[in-house]
Amino acid sequence: MPRRLRRFVLYPIAAVIPVAGLTLGLTTSAGASSTASPAAVKAAAAKKAAISEFRKLNVGKHGTAHKVGSAKKSVKGLTQVQSSNWAGYADTGSNFSKVSVSYTEPTATCNSSADQLAAFWVGIDGYSSSSVEQDGTMIECYQGTAYHYTWWEMYPTNAVQVVGQSAAAGDSITATVTRSGSSYALAVTDSTHPSDSFSTTQTGSGLANSSAEWIAEAPSGSSGLYPLANFGTWTANSASMTEGSSTGSISSGTDDEITMVNGSGQDLTTTGALNSSGNSFSVKWDRSS
Question: What is the pTM of this model?
Answer without folding.
Answer: 0.81
